[in-house]
Specification:
13 strands, 308 residues, 5-stranded mixed sheet, globular, 4-stranded antiparallel sheet, alpha/beta
């Protein structure tokens, strides 16, 4: 029977994700030579070539991709076994590490933690790690967090065998205007009405993409007057009359007195939030409790949005 070494299979999967031996070594805290040696040993154990030269780099062979397809089922089964064993030992009182982007922490994660604390049953301990939207799935895949909250723009494909995705309501985008802006009180404000305004959004990353996509859907390309990544800076510039900005409803805690927030009822721009665990881990009692709490908070937020 062919020998399947789980540790070496994880190295192969990391190489598939990271693309180079050097990046794989950095992710796994190994040396590049150790990565190469482990993969050579795995190839000998399996009796098939796993890597082939491509210039100065290497790429996975068809046999390696075949191995990984089966390995994903093994990893998922191990996650299920670990979840059941943890549930057997700790019930719902285990630790769950959550990686979430900045605005999701106060809007979703903290209310979910408070919801769990209000329950009379012993509940899981939640450890929070703020992470960029693009980083959350890297942390999840590496085993550094147990649950990831990210944006759909940076999520892997929905059929990615490494993860189980769970639904969360979309986050509406409101437009922030200076309090004295000529359109601040205009009834039925449309995003297209702001086509000629100076816009404030990040120079790159998900928020730049989300703002640009929403404006393009409304028929124009936004003129970027200023670039900032944090909501405090963005809203301070809006308040000073330096431009307008799209702001996610989740960032409501950052809103300022000199800024008017307008709901774009006709356009309904949104950003899509995704929640995921490693495939097989969703059955663990502690993880399941945290997932349920986050979905309950998300549903409550959606209900409140519909009342606006």
């Amino acid at each position: 029977m062919t020998e399947w070494d789980v540790k070496k299979l994880r190295i192969l999967r990391t190489l598939s994700e990271r693309g180079t031996v050097t990046a794989t070594a950095e992710a796994l805290l190994m040396t590049p030579s150790a990565v190469s040696q482990q993969l050579s040993n795995l190839a000998r154990q399996l009796g098939v070539p796993l890597l082939e030269a491509q210039g100065r780099r290497v790429r996975l062979t068809d046999a390696a991709h075949l191995v990984l397809r089966h390995a994903e089922a093994v990893f998922a089964q191990l996650e299920r076994a670990d979840a059941e064993l943890t549930g057997y030992l700790r019930g719902e009182a285990g630790e769950v590490r959550v990686g979430a982007f900045s605005t999701a922490v106060p809007a979703l994660v903290v209310p979910a933690v408070l919801l769990l604390r209000a329950d009379d049953r012993p509940g899981p301990s939640v450890r929070v790690r703020e992470a960029e939207a693009a980083e959350a799935f890297e942390l999840l895949s590496a085993g550094d967090v147990d649950l990831a909250l990210s944006l759909a723009a940076h999520a892997p494909a929905a059929h990615d065998p490494r993860f189980t995705f769970l639904p969360l309501p979309a986050d509406p985008l409101d437009v922030a205007l200076p309090a004295g802006h000529r359109l601040a009180e205009t009834p039925g404000l449309r995003l297209a009405d702001l086509a000629g305004e100076p816009w404030i959004f990040g120079g790159s990353g998900p928020w730049s993409e989300i703002t640009t996509a929403a404006c393009q859907a409304a028929g124009f390309v936004p003129e970027q007057a200023h670039s900032a990544a944090g909501w405090t800076a963005i809203l301070a510039m809006v308040e000073a009359g330096m431009g307008v900005a799209l702001v996610p409803r989740m960032a409501s805690a950052e809103r300022r007195g000199g800024v008017v927030m307008r709901v774009l009822e006709a356009d309904l721009p949104r950003r899509h939030v995704v929640m995921a665990v490693r495939q097989g881990a969703e059955g663990g009692p502690a993880v399941a409790r945290v997932l349920a709490a986050l979905q309950q908070v998300g549903a409550a937020r959606e209900a409140s949005v519909q009342l606006i």
